[in-house]
Amino acid sequence: MAEEAPREVMATADVEARSETTPQPAGISSRLGTLLVVVTGLLVITLTPTITYFVIRSAAQPRVPDVAPAASETRAGALPSGAGMLELNPILVNIAQTKATRILKLQVQLVVSDATLADDLKAQALPLLTDRVIQVARRKTLEDLEGTQGTDALKRDILSELNAVLKDRGAIVDIYFKEFLIQ
User: Fold this and answer.
1) Domain range 84-182, CATH architecture
2) Which pTM value belongs to this model?
3) Measured between alpha carbons, how far is 51 from 167 in angstroms, rounded to an integer?
């Protein structure tokens, strides 16, 4: 039994030597914990803006209805069925009460109730329509033309003047300004 005692001492010395050379499991877990925190932080930093972008983008897109609207339920700004477009030549006028120091440049597109009427007007009455637009625009002052209210008022005035010219031949449904410039 005397021989067995030194083996136990050597075995315990061997275990102690191994534990000193191998890293402690607590040190490994603290490094892994730090690495896990850093990786998680990077994922949160990169994924949060990406997810936010796609959520906002999907919320901002208009929902398309599954059923097409009936003919009487056309959207505002949509062309009525059978309507035609008529583009007037560019118009350049002096703005009222500016002593010819300020000008208004317009390029007007008319939405006509009937496509055949648009063709007839283009062939026969384009100079008359252009003249009436010039007359309406020349009466406007700089204050009259300011802001969206000014452009909307100009559109209404042009629309009523041109529809008075057309009388029973048809109607101008809407007016678009392709160019609206005040200098």
Assistant:
1) 2-Layer Sandwich (3.30)
2) 0.56
3) 58
Task: Confirm if 128 and 165 have CB atoms less than 8 A apart.
Answer: yes
Place of tokens 């101008």: 172
Q: Say if residues 71 and 98 touch (Cβ distance below 8 Å).
A: no
Read off the tokens for 92.
């350049």
pLDDT digits 0-9 by tens, 74-101: 445 566 777 889 999 999 999 999 888 9
DSSP labels for the chain?
-TTHHHHHHHHHHHHHHHHHHSPPHHHHHHHHHHHHHHHHHHHHHHHHHHHHHHHHHHHHSPPPPSSPPPTT-PPTTPPPTT-EEEEPPPEEEEPBTSTTS-EEEEEEEEEES-HHHHHHHHHHTHHHHHHHHHHHHHT-BTTTTSHHHHHHHHHHHHHHHHHHHHTTS--EEEEEEEEEEE-
Whole-number Å distance between alpha carbons of 162 and 155: 11
- Domain positions in the chain are 24-63, 84-182
Angle among Cα 22, 11, 4 to the nearest 5 degrees reads 175
Query: What are 103-130's pLDDT values in tens digits?
Result: 999 999 999 988 888 888 888 888 999 9
- The full 3-state SS of 124-146, as one line of letters, equals HCHHHHHHHHHHHHHCCECCCCC
